[in-house]
Every structure is written in C-alpha cells, then in structure tokens.
Amino acid sequence: MTYSTSDTRSVSPVRVAIDPAGAGRAAEAATLSRLTRPDGTPVRVLVVDDEPNLAELLSMALRYEGWDVRSAGDSAGAVRTAREFRPDAVVLDMMLPDVDGLETLRRLRSEMPQLPVLFLTARDSVEDRVAGLTAGGDDYVTKPFSIEEVVARLRALVRRSGRAGAASESTLVVGDLVMEEDSHEVRRAGDPIALTATEFELLRYLMRNPRRVLSKRQILDRVWNYDFGGQANVVELYISYLRKKIDAGRLPMIHTMRGAGYVLKPAA
Known about the structure:
Rossmann fold; Arc Repressor Mutant, subunit A; 2 domains; five-stranded parallel sheet; 16 strands; about 40% helix
C-alpha cells in the first residue's frame, strides 16, 4: 500500500510504502529477533509528526514490531510525552507547527542526553542533512520513504544505544506481554503474572500465534492434546481465567471472534 499526502512545505508529495500483509506475517513469526528492553518489556518509541495519518501509519508499523508507541503532533507535545513516556528512541519530523525539529531535539536532549533520535523530513538537501546530524540527530531519513527502512534504522539505533537486545529463543513477546518459556515467568508491562500450568500452556499457544484466530478445536488439540468429546466450554473457561489475569484493569489483548475462535494481539 502506498500512503500519499500533500505537504505544502515541500516541493513533492510524501509517499510511504508499506506492505500490511508482510508486516502481519512478520508479527506472526517467531520472536527470535524481536527487540525488548533489558527487563523484557517492549521498546518504547515516540513518533513526532504533525500529519496524523502519517504518524498513525508509522505507529502501526512499529506496533507490529511489538513496540510500545506514542505520538505527538508538535514540539510541546513531544517534550511533554517524552517526560511521561521515557522513550527509548524518537522519530522526529524536522518541520513542526510550533518549533522546528532542531530546537525540539535540543529540548529533548536537555532532559534525556542519550536519547536516540531519527529525523524524518521532506528536507532532502545535503545542507539540511548535515544540519540535522550536526545538531545531534543519530540518523536522517527523507520523504518519500519506506516504512521497512525506517523500522530497520530504528532497530539499529536502539541496538547501538544499548537500550535493548534481541529476545532469546525462550522469550515470547506480544506487545507489552512477555513470556519466559524456560522459567515460566510471565509479565505484562513489567508486572509479574502468576499462571497455572494449563493457563501457561494456553497463553504460550496464543503468543506463538499472535493476530491469528485460533478455533476452539485447534486450542483443544494443541493445549490438552486430546478430544474433550465436544466439551469445548473448557476452552471458554480457561480463556476467562486468562483474561482475568492478563487483561484485568488494562486494555484487552485476548479477543473473541464470534463463531471463529480467539485471537491474541497487542492492545490498541
């Protein structure tokens, strides 16, 4: 899909290419290379752009990575959100309605000196790039751009900053939900969650298939390993147990698809 919008501040339209199917497949794949913070919680990224559609499109792509994403439409909102959110990286548009990106960078760095920042802008002259990098930007991507490239560059920035590392083979991550398969530890947003053995196996199956609708029959076969003689209500029962522990007081991650089954996905 190509995103296109007129930008009166530049000589050409902004075009952003993204493959939703590819992003979905990546989200459903094993999480061996997924980046997380040292405590296992999702990497936090702040997207600062005054074009809501562009900011939402980029935020969606980053959420496919399992990252926690917030957005702001101006410099004041960026600084305010950064104070509360404490991001691990920032995507910063050079042209903002109140203060330009260079001054916004200075304000952000005055409070978080080591914060990685990737400039995203329609300004593509050599002078503009040099100005952005000289001011302290860690990377610079010009519009039109590829979503996949921005995500890859952000991953590299976060890795180099030492703020995150690839999840181990025994770690499953979906949004802010983290499962350590070896130690049987589960956390959501850093908070530990105690599960029974059956609840753990059910959640593991859901987390290995994020965004995929799983039928009751599939869950019975995989988690219980035998046929309950049509008593699929045991699945409903254990899904309700998981919801009380995983979703209680938070945005829901476990969803019922009427007539189809259940799906686990990052909270919207």
